Structures are given as C-alpha cells and as structure tokens.
Queue: 3 jobs
Job 1
Amino acid sequence: MKRGIIIAITLIAVVVAVYIMMRPRLAEKAYLEGNTLADSSQFEQALVQYTKAINLNGKVSEYYNARGFVQSALNKDSLALADFNTAIELKPNVDMFHLNRGKSFRKLKDYTNAFNDLNKAITLNDTLAAAYYQRGLLKATQMDFDGAVADYNRSIELDGSNLEAFYSRGESRAHLNDFMGAIADYDKMIEQAENPAIAYKQRGTFKLKIQDYEGAEKDLEQSLALADNDKEVLFSIGQAKFNLSKVDEAISFYNKAIKLDSKYDLAYGSRAGAYLKKNSFKLAIQDFTKAIELNGSYQKAYYGRGIAKALSGDYRGSISDFSRVIEIDREFAQAYYNRGVSNAILGNHKEALSDYDFIIAKDPRYAEAYYNRGISRMNTQNEKGACEDFKKAVDLGYKQAEPMLKMYCRNAEQQ
C-alpha cells in the first residue's frame, strides 16, 4: 500500500515537473499560433492564443505586446495600454512597444503621452517608418499640417508601400492649399494600389472636398465599377451629382445608398436636400425627419426641415426647427435670420428683432437683414430705426428696400 502511494506521488511529481518544463514551449506555441491568426486578421482568435501564452509564461514582453496589438485592432485600446505597459516594464527600450503604445494613446486622444511614445520610438530607431506616420497623424490632429507633411515625407521615404501615408499626406497638403501636391499623392495611391477601388474612392472624396465635382464624379464612378455595393461611394456620387445640378440622378444614388443601409442618416439628409431643391417639400420634410430620428443632433437636417416647413407655410414648425439648430450651435447665424423671418410673418416682430440684431452684429453688411429688421421695427412703431435700416439696406445695394425708403422715410432719403 505504502509503495503504491509513493509511486503515485512520484508520478504526479514527474508530471508536474514535465509540465513546468513544457510551459515555455507551450507558451511559445500558443504565441506563434496567435501570430498566424493575427496575420490573417482573426484578432479574436489571436487574442485567445496570446492570453494562453501569457498564462503559461508571463515573463515574455513580446507576448504582452502582441496581445496589446490585437486588443488595439479590436478597438479595446484601454486594455491594450495595460499590455503595452507591461511589455515596456519588462523591456523598456524596444521601439515597436513604444510605437504601439503611442498609437493606442493617439486613438484614446491622450496626445501628450502619444507624442512621448512616438518620439521615444523614433529616438530608438530613426528608420521606423510607421512611427513617423503615426506622429504625422498626431500632428495633423493638432493642426500642425507642415509638421505632419514632414513626417509623412519621412515615412514614405522609408516605406513607400504604405498607401495610407500618401492619403494622409494628401489630406494635410489640402489643408495647406497645396491641392496639386494632394492630387499627386492620390495619383500615386492609384498607381500602386492593390485595390484601386479604394484609391479611386479616396481621390474622389478628396475632389469633393475641393469642389472638383466633375473629377469627383468620374473617380467615384470608377470606384463603383471596380467594387460595387459601397454605400459611401454611392452617397458621394450623389453629392457630386447634386452639386453638378443633376438632382434626379443624385436622388437615385441616395436611394441606392439607403437600400444598402436603411439607417444611413447622411443619405436621408442629402436626399431631403435634393427634394427641397425640386420644391418637393413634403418628401423633403419626410426625409429630414427620418434623418433626425436616426441622429438627434443632425444640425443640417433640422435646418433643412425648418426651411422646408417655412416654404410650405408651416412657420411655427420652422421656428421650432431653427430654434433646435441654435441650441446645437449658438453661432449658426442663418438659423437666427430664418427664425426671424418666420416670426415676422406670424406677426411676432419683437421676437424677430432679437434674431435680426444677432445676425447684423455677426455680419454688418447683410443688407437683407437690415431690410427685414426695418420692417419689424416699423411694425413695432420704431419708425426712426426702421428708416435707418432701410437706408442702410439701400446703401449696401439691396434695391428692394428703395420703395420702403421712399414711402415711409422721405427725410432719410434726402440725407
């Protein structure tokens, strides 16, 4: 009996000893399996393997860095930071660890720590292209577009295969009004891209931003031909066509985008704008309302719906929408102006006056605002102020104010 117990204990001890000896091998095997999964973008499965590797051997910095990388890829950057911190504690001077932690800090908008890590990564390895690219993104976030372009330049010199660097450099060049340089970067993307559909999409989107609507239409349609069923491309083609006054064609593309995504608030809002352009106020209001249901802070949708309601005679409804716009953005001057007009039409001249006062303070050369304020002043028995406004409107070139000036303000007209 004793002999059997001794043998059993010995076997257990041997098994435990073998397991302890095998743990590093098992950990490395799990780590390598995680790498294979991560390389094929199977991040959830890779996370399981990296966690297994850490549980088996928690003293290897690369395991924590790898798990942090996939956590970041899964947009779990707070968790990623904990892993990068441990990796750096174990090995303080590895460039990639600082690069990866800097990237997570950037995504979490902790820009000071992001700069510190990326600078450290570059100090450790001044040929690390990805660190310059990430620092360029940071500088662009801080509106330092010259600095961003310099970092993108260095990143591209070191690694010309990162097409996102060309795209980002193009964005920063555009902010510096270097539109030709920006277009050259997008051209380069298209030359080198394995997936030209994305490159055409990005160049087309950029051309939309610089109001090259014909160029945008051409590039975006090329992108669609190479890879259909992209709701963003369909939407952007609609935007280009709308700005080229191809309103019916624009609506058809917004329809296609909405068919792919029934909760695409921007597409509803833009289709509503197209209906408004066609004076289809009922359809415009329906689409603006849908956009607002999907996005309660969609300022342009409230504003557009306010315009559509005013044009269809629902002035109280328009006032409500313009007021909501102002709640979202206190500086949206045109919302004040249109709310003032709607209030004046309803006879609420005192309310209208405060809105006209605001917009004239913002834009002292807004002739039509002086004219409308003059009418509201006349209706509140402020004839002197009304005549001053009509005269100011005429002086600014608003001819519609001349009859009011002649009819009510003979003395002012002679001045």
Job 2
Amino acid sequence: MCLARRSATLVLQVSVLACVLVTQPGCTPDNATSNRSEIAAEATKAPQSVVDKGPLRASGKPASDERAWYFPATASEYAKMVEPELGVPPKIDLSEAVEIPIYVDGVQVYGNRRRACDNPGFLGKDTVSGSTLQRHEGRTADGKPLPDVVWVSFGRNLTRDPADLIASVQMIGYHRKTGATAFFESSDKLKPWVKLDEGTLRMRGVMPWIDDPAEFNRAFVPPERSRLQCVQCHQADPFITNDFITAAKMPGTDEPVVPILDENSPFWVIGGDNWDMRTVHIPGNSCLECHRVGLSTMSMFMENGWDPNAHMPPNDPGSLAADAAQLIKVLREGPASVEGATWVVPPARGNPAQTVGDDYPHKAPFNDPKPASKRKDK
C-alpha cells in the first residue's frame, strides 16, 4: 500500500481547514507592501506579541498550544507576512475554476452523493457536486510572475439544500524550491459572494481580494489559535489529494489541478515554525518510495471508510499490504514498535530532511500513538 503516486488513485498529501468568519479591519494595499518586513519580523517574536492568549480549559491550561501560533490576527496581515516568500494571494473567480466531477459507475452525476459515488472525498464530509479547483501562478504585487510559486484555490461545496448555501473557499500557496507554504480559509457562509448553479450546484462568484482589506478579512482567516494545526491533516505536503480531488484536471490534459509532490518536496509553513512537522520513515518500506506518509492523514481517511489495500498501490492494490501494516503499527504503537522507524521533518528553506527524536520540541497530540480501541479507523 503506497499512499500516493503521481498517477495514484489516492494520494495522501493534505487540505482540511477550519471555517470561521472574522470582520476585523485590515491594512491598505500600500501598507501591505511598505510594512511587510515589520509584520514578518513581528511573527518571529514571542507568539503573544502576535495573538493574545486564548480561552482556558477547565483545567486552567490553554485551549491550544500558544507557543505554536506565530500568525497575525487577520487575513490581510497574513497576506503581507507571506508576500516576501509567495507574492500575493490570487484573485479568485470561481467561474474560471475547474469543476470537480463526481461519478457513479463512470457517469458524471450531481447533487449530494455522500459516499455513494465512485470518487468520494473520505474527509468526513458529504461528497457534493459543484466544488471547484483552480491552479494559479504566483505573482508579485505588481504582477511579476513567480514561476516557482503555485497557489491552489478550492471551492468546497457542502450544500444539502440549495436554498441554504454551505460552502467554503480555501487557498494554499506553495514555493516549490523553498517549501514555504501559506493556508487561508473562508467561512462556511459565503452568500455575500457565492451562488450555485441550479441543478448542478456548481459554485460561482468572485471572492474579495487584498485590494479591499476589510472585505478580504470578512471572507478569509489565517490559521487560528482555536483550531487544529493545518498540518494535522496536511502532514506529508501542502496538498491533500484523493479520487475526488484528482478528478479535476488541468484543461485539455490528464494532469490533476492539484500539484502532486514527492518524498523530497520541501515543506514548511509561514508562521507555523513551531508546528509538528513529523512524518514517519521506515527503511525499505515501499509505501514511502514516492512520498511521505502522514499517519494522522492516513487515519482520517481510514476513519471515513478508505481501505488502503483496496486502493494502493494503484497499479496493484493490496500488493504492499505488509508495508501498510508497518505504517499502521506505527500509527497504533509509535515508531519504536517497528525496527528502524524514525520521525523525520521535511526539507525546508534549503536544508535537508532531518531525523528527530524524543527531544523534538514541537510535538503535538495528533502524532501520539493511539491503540485501535481508541480510534474510529480500527
């Protein structure tokens, strides 16, 4: 069971984010250029200088790890922070995006199919027609191309009743050489900007951009302290892919809209310097020949009905069951349970991949081993 290949039926690489609506005013585009270095510098200071402490649990402990949150409070401020690495976020016109088709017995269908289709999402959400994907070339604020930067925008339609629009729009920016990554997420309530085509439920509409910071901040948020680390699901690299996602192709080609990365792809999150970036490495494990494997991501898919040995490797499903069993053993019992297994963090900023041990300072609970009896994916 290799969990991803360039032609994979199902590639475990990343994109489930939190959905919240904020209405904080932002900065003007001029400020976005002139003070971006101050914003970036501020984000490397103690996290409390960027975001106030959040609510406490009943135990008196913070609801999330304050040390891990080096993000500004608004999307417009985050856009300024990521600009030196990734340029500016794209302008999103959902009508220009590629619709993600869903199929039943090879025939495209519409509406809410839940899991009853050929290519369900396996993300714990219904599979609904009308979602979209678009790949955008990176650009500077003055329009200069950044060929090493790619942005992907994802319009996710979750509407059950066409009269009650429930959808979100996400943006992921990625630098292919340095691994720099940024995550933006919208609210689930997009009625000010998005509508659905009758019958097909295809998403339409233009999302606010950074030239209107207040509106951009209404539409989008950066990663938030009260939410999961994005890398809990986006563990292996910035982009989650599966049969649902890879059904959307670049126009006129058989290439998925979402870039397919490999085991050597660099990856780090701007603002997430203290996030848990670990994935497991097992010498000789064939599942790791083409890509990294995020155990939390793998577990999420399995919890939602995905059987790795029924899908992977795509050319001979089930032929790597022994390798898959090693990964699942690490998932259940930790790396010490499999000979040679270690935690690694990906290449980043020109540095090679690093093996890390128990002294790794950024551990998060999602990488803790949990017995099958405590998991839904048993």
Job 3
Amino acid sequence: MRNYLSIILLLLTFGLIAQTNTFSPYSYFGLGSHEPQNGVFSQSMGGIGQGLSNSIYVNTANPASYVANQKINFEFNLYAKLNTLQDSTGYNDFKTFNFSRITLAFPLGKKKNAGACMGIMPYSTSGYNIQRKFTAPIAHTDYYSGNGGINKLFFGAGYSFNKSLSLGANVNYLFGDINNIRVTTFDSAYVTNYYLENKTILRGVNFDLGLQYKVYKEFVKDTVKYRKDDSVYVRKNRNMFHKDSLVHLKQFGFRAGSDTVTLIFNWGVSYTTSSNSNATRDVYGVTFKDYYLPFLQKNLIVKDTAKYSIDEKGKIFIPGSVGIGFSLSNEHKSDKRNNFLVGADFNYSNWTSYRNYGNTDSLHQSYAIKLGGYYKPLKSYRSDYFNEIEYRAGAHYTRTPIVVRGTAINEYGAALGFGLPMKFKGRSSGILNLGFEIGKMGTLQNDLTTDTYYKLSLGLNLVSAEWFRHYKYE
C-alpha cells in the first residue's frame, strides 16, 4: 500500500503543478481565478467547510478539524470541466481534465486529541486569450494572452482541549509562475506595433488559523425499529485461554425500543494571513513591423527593443481572508452514525490592498455565501447498498473582487454529489466521492463575457489504521 501511495502522490503532484485549469478571460486579473480550497466532499455541498469535522474526510477549510482524523487518510481529487464562453460574437467551448488536490491526514499521539495534515493544491490559475478592437484614436487591436498559476503546499495540525473546543493552524508555501503577453497591432502601416511579455515567479508563505466549537444536545427518541437481520454480538464466558469470546446472533422479527439521539452544533471560524511574497520577473518589450500568429518572440520581425530586464526582484502582496460558518448534524446511538448534516459558510477578503510590484489591479472587496448538506438513511430504513450512500447537495454565490467597466463580476452555482463507501481487506476502507457542479460567472452587459461551466469531480479517500505499521511476525 505504501508503494502505491508513493507512486500516486508523485504522479498527481507532477500533474497538479503542470496543469492549466481555466480558459476564463477573468483570470486576467490579479493572480488569476481562485480555486476551491477543499475536496469533492465539500464542493458537493456548495463548498462549506468552516463547521465540518469528519473522521473519514479531510477538511482543509478549517485546520481545527484535523483532530477528527484519527486514522491515516489519503485523499486525491480530479475533475473534468467544460467551460462555455459567450460574448457578443458567439460561443466557444473549452474542456479540461486535471488533478486538483492531494492530502494526507494522520493522528498525532495516542490520546486521540490531535491530528495533522499535509498536501498540495492549486491556489489560483490563469489561462486566457482576449482580443479587443478599437477605432479611436487610431484603429488598432489589442491581444491579451496568459497562462500559469499559483500552487499551495501546506502542513497543519489541530488540537482539542476538550470535547467541545479545538484549534488548528496551517503553514502554507505559495509558489508558481504566471506568464502574460500583451500585443497591440495598428491597422495603419505607418504606426509601429508593440509586443510586451512578462514572466513572473512567486514564492511566499502565509498561515491559516482555525477554531471549532461544538455544542451537544441529547434527547431520547421512542419506538425505534430495528431490522430483523441486524447483527448482535454478545459476550460468552471466558474460555480455557482466559479470553472472552463473541457469539454472533441474528434478530428475527422487528423489535422496538428507545434511541438516544445527539444533535451536534459545530461553529467554525478561520483566518488566513496576508502574504508579502517575494517575486522575480523577466520583462521583454519590443516594437515590430511584421508578424505571424501566434504572438511569440520568434514569430516577430523586431524593429527595436523597448524594454528588457531579467530577474527583476519585487513583492506581490496577497491580502488575507476570514471565514465563519456552522454545521448541524445528528448522531444515533442505535445506528452509530450521523445521518444528516446542514451547514453554511461566509467568507470575506479585501482585495483592494493587492499589490503587484507596487501596482494595483482595480480589484475590490469580495465575499462568498455557501449553503449545503448531506443525508444518509438510517440502517433501520433500508438493508441494501443504497443505505450506505451519502446524498449531498449545495449552492454558492460569490461576489468576486473583479469589476470591469463599472460592472461587478459575480459567480453562482449549484452542486450535487454522492459518497460511495468501499471495503478492502483488513481494517482499510474508502469513500469514492462523486460530484457534479454547474455554475456561471460574468455578464453580457457592457460588452462583457459569461463563463458557464459544468464540472464533474471524482475524489477518493483511503482510510486505514494499519498503513505504515511494521509487524514483528507475519
């Protein structure tokens, strides 16, 4: 198992760093389009995460939740996405298929009051090709092209002081590069065209701080029915080896009794610090007369070099953010599981303070509202595999920091998902997470563009208490 995980981790990490995740023209602004900072489990519920704490999932939205991961939990996610861009000239479709996140969570110590997590995921992605024509003051065309992105490598830990209160923190290493090209060509042969290429490499550190507080409320529910094939184990007298033995019985017919139900109200809050990241950039600007597409340095007949600098050092300031949310779930003593959860999150960030080598990018304040939950039938209701599936749904609305021509760019979407349990030999288990999301960003007003996307996500959680153990006898 360890060898397989090492190979998977290496392949997925290479795919994560090398990918292009977007074709949205709005990824031109700032560091590009911001990627979800949680897995398929959360995305299928609208992206909630501040109040989530689950032993079989890895919740990176709030590091205080790592306390719940008291077994080794390896997770990786991938997705297929279709983006449809629409503007006044028509439609264009773009397809992507990529890995999106790799995490490994594990317990710290034997007291079951601390857990840790490490992993890698995209922080932002950039990928666009924009063309705009102007008639004044001189007829010309502007071309914008970009690609790249910022990744986040992190390590974090959480600690619970008691049954209710837990705290956690991540240290994040941000790294990546973003390449931008701008070309201006004039209709008149007497005006010189211009080409400018900017390659920026970013390296920086920031921190996530998280808190979760749980409130428990127990009550007794009467007339609970159990299936006739429920398995019951009873103790038998000690045998000759002075060990207790278990005898397996089966219940025949339904029986009724009382059931203790616990409602769990989980508050969560997190804060991500700002980062004044180190950056280096190469800038190459030339005037040219003739060219052929695409606009690359080798495709230009250069007339004169207007700007040239290598390894120009500077700073990129990334603002911090805050998130707050809650979840409400239940736990049945008879069923030994949570069979429903509902939750909501609110996230806020002020991107007016963003700086790239001292320059702003006309970004504004942003916020996001997320709603979602899941339902899992009680064992007493069904007896087949569908009884084990988690059914998830959610929605989200984001006021992005982007404002173009006085028009705010908003994003909204809805999601559905399923958690399909898997069993392996020994004490290992897994969850196959499927999610489908549909969303839209932008508007057609003021000659802008809409980005409608359809996203199919696949995530796998492998959970075991036996990985990395060394047995003395085999």
